[in-house]
Design a protein that fits this description.
Strand content: 5-15%
Distance between the termini: 69 Å
Helix content: 40-55%
Order of helices and strands: HHHHHHHHHHEHHEEHEEHEHEE
Radius of gyration: 37 Å
Largest sheet: 8 strands, mixed
Shape: rod-shaped
Structural class: alpha+beta
Number of helices: 15
Length: 470
C-alpha cells in the first residue's frame, strides 16, 4: 500500500511557551504561523489522500482496496482533529493525535489487507518502499516551527516503525518451502537470497531507514529552531514598531522604520508645541473614586491622542490630566504649525461630542485649556540605560505658559503670534483662525518680554469645531 499524508503542525515546546508569555507580539506571530500551517497541512493532506485513493484503484481494481481507503479516511479525520485542537503552547491532546497519525500510517503500511485473497508472507509488506512517505509527514511538521516536536515526530516514527518490524519478525511464521526453493534456484547464492527472499524482513534495511530518518529529523529540527529565532527577532521588531506607534503618528512610524537610528541625532529644529489640560480637574477628582478618575482620564487621553495622530503629531508625554504634543518631530513637515492649530480645533470638536454624551448620562462636562506655540527646540535622546526622545527649549516653556493663560483669559485656545504667522506662511486654512482675538503686550511667567497672543474666547464654543476637518 502506498500512503501519502501531510503532517500536522505540532504544538510548541515549553521554551517557546515561556517566550510567548514575555512577548505578546511573538505569541501573535506564532499563533498566525500555527493557524496557517495547520490549514495548509490539512488541505495538503486531503489532496494527497484523494490522489492516493485514485492511484490505489488503478493499481488494485478490486473491492478489497476499500480497506486502504478506510485507512486514508482515518488519516483525513485525524488531520481535521489536529487542526481543531492545535494551538500555540504544549497540548497533550494534539501530541496524542500526532502519535496516532504515525501509528495509523504504520498500520496501513505493514499490516496485510484482511479482505485480500492473496496469501503472501508478512515480510512482503516491507518491500513496497512505503516508508518514504513518512518523510512527507516529517517535512510538513515544520510548518508550526516547533523544533522539539519535529524531532519528536522523527523519534516516534523510528520507534513505531522498528517496533512493528521486530514484532513482525518475531511472531510471523515464514511460508515453508519458499526460502529453500529460492536457495536452490539461485544455486546457493546467499547474497541474492537475502535480497529477494519473501520471508526475509531485511532488518538491517529497516534499521538503515530508521537511522537516516532520525538524522533528517534532527536536521529539520535545527532548521525549525532557526525559523523560530527568526520569528522571535521579527516579534522584537514589531514590538519596537508598536512602541513607536504609541508616540508617533502612523506616517512618522513608517519613516522611522525605514531609517537607521534617526532619533540619536541631536539637532535644533522649529517645532509646533501643543499643551492641553483639563480645567478644574482637582475638583472633579475629589468628587469621584479612584477608578472613576482613571476611567475619565483614559477616555480623555484616548480622544485627544486620536486627534494628535490624525493631524500627524507626536505624543510627547501625558501630564496627569493633560498631555503635550509636538508637530514636526522627529521630522519637520511643510504644515506643522497648521496641523497643530487644526489639532487644537479638532480636540475642541471631539470634546464637544464627548460632553454631549456626558450630558445624556447626567455627568459633568469637561472643560480644557489649550496653548500652542511655534519656535526653535532641541531634539534628541536623553538618558543612559533607559532612553527617552525629548523636545526641549524655551519654545516648550512658552507653549506651557500659553496653556496656563487660558484660565486668566477665559479662553479655549491661546496661540502665539509666531504660530499665527507660521500658519499664514504655510498657506493654512483661513477658517482655522476664525474667532481668535488679538491681545497685545501680554506677559508670561518666566519671560521678560511681553508677547502678542491670539485668544479663542470660551464664549466661542459654538465655533470650536470650525476648521477641524471633522
Amino acid at each position: 500500500m502506498a500512503v501519502t499524508a501531510s503532517a500536522p503542525a505540532p504544538a510548541l515546546d515549553s521554551d517557546e511557551a515561556i517566550f510567548t508569555q514575555e512577548s505578546p507580539y511573538a505569541l501573535d506571530a506564532l499563533t498566525e504561523h500555527k493557524r496557517n500551517g495547520l490549514e495548509l497541512a490539512v488541505r495538503a493532506r486531503w489532496v494527497a489522500m484523494a490522489v492516493t485513493a485514485a492511484f490505489l484503484v488503478y493499481v488494485n481494481p478490486e473491492w478489497d482496496v476499500l480497506y486502504y481507503h478506510f485507512i486514508l479516511a482515518l488519516l483525513c479525520l485525524n488531520g481535521w482533529l489536529i487542526r481543531r485542537v492545535g494551538r500555540v503552547g504544549q497540548s497533550r491532546l494534539e501530541m496524542l493525535l500526532i502519535f496516532a497519525d504515525l501509528a495509523i500510517m504504520t498500520a496501513g503500511m505493514v499490516i496485510p489487507n484482511p479482505f485480500s485473497s492473496e496469501d503472501l508472507p508478512l515480510a512482503i509488506q516491507y518491500r513496497y518502499g512505503n516508508f518514504i512517505y513518512f518523510f512527507i509527514i516529517l517535512a510538513a511538521g515544520t510548518l508550526a516551527y516547533s523544533w522539539r516536536t519535529v524531532i519528536a515526530i522523527g523519534s516516534w516514527t523510528v520507534l513505531i516503525w522498528l517496533s512493528a518490524a521486530f514484532t513482525a519478525w518475531w511472531f510471523a511464521l515464514p511460508q515453508a518451502g519458499l526460502s529453500a526453493a529460492l536457495l536452490e534456484a539461485v544455486e546457493g547464492n546467499q547474497s541474492l537470497v537475502s535480497l529477494v527472499d519473501p520471508n526475509d524482513f531485511a532488518l538491517h534495511q529497516r534499521l538503515q531507514e530508521a537511522i537516516v530518518f532520525f538524522l533528517v529529523a534532527v536536521t529539520l529540527g535545527v532548521s525549525s529552531r532557526r525559523f523560530y529565532q527568526l520569528i522571535q527577532n521579527n516579534a522584537g521588531l514589531e514590538r519596537e514598531r508598536a512602541n513607536l506607534s504609541r508616540y508617533f503618528s502612523p506616517n512618522v512610524v513608517q519613516q522611522l522604520s525605514q531609517n537607521d537610528e534617526p532619533l540619536k541625532q541631536t539637532r535644533r529644529q522649529d517645532v509646533a508645541i501643543l499643551f492641553i489640560d483639563i480645567i478644574g480637574f482637582t475638583r472633579l477628582a475629589a468628587e469621584r473614586d479612584a477608578y472613576q478618575v482613571i476611567d475619565l482620564l483614559r477616555d480623555f487621553h484616548g480622544r485627544m491622542e486620536l486627534e494628535v495622530f490624525r493631524h500627524q503629531g507626536t505624543l510627547d508625554k501625558y501630564l496627569g490630566d493633560g498631555l503635550m504634543a509636538t508637530f514636526g518631530t522627529p521630522l519637520a513637515g511643510p504644515h506643522d504649525a497648521t496641523n497643530a492649530l487644526a489639532c487644537a480645533r479638532a480636540m475642541l470638536a471631539s470634546l464637544a461630542d464627548w460632553n454631549a454624551e456626558r450630558r445624556r448620562y447626567g455627568e459633568a462636562e469637561i472643560h480644557v485649556g489649550i496653548g500652542v506655540h511655534f519656535g526653535e527646540t532641541v531634539l534628541g535622546n536623553i538618558g543612559a540605560n533607559r532612553l527617552e526622545y525629548a523636545v526641549i527649549g524655551n519654545a516648550v516653556n512658552i507653549a506651557a505658559r500659553l496653556e496656563e493663560r487660558t484660565r486668566e483669559l477665559d479662553a479655549l485656545i491661546v496661540i502665539s503670534e509666531a504660530l499665527r504667522q507660521r500658519v499664514q506662511n504655510e498657506g493654512g486654512q483661513l477658517d482655522l483662525q476664525t474667532g481668535f482675538v488679538e491681545h497685545r503686550g501680554c506677559e508670561l511667567r518666566g519671560l521678560t518680554l511681553p508677547m502678542t497672543l491670539w485668544v479663542l474666547p470660551r464664549q466661542a464654543d459654538a465655533l470650536a469645531g470650525s476648521g477641524s476637518g471633522r
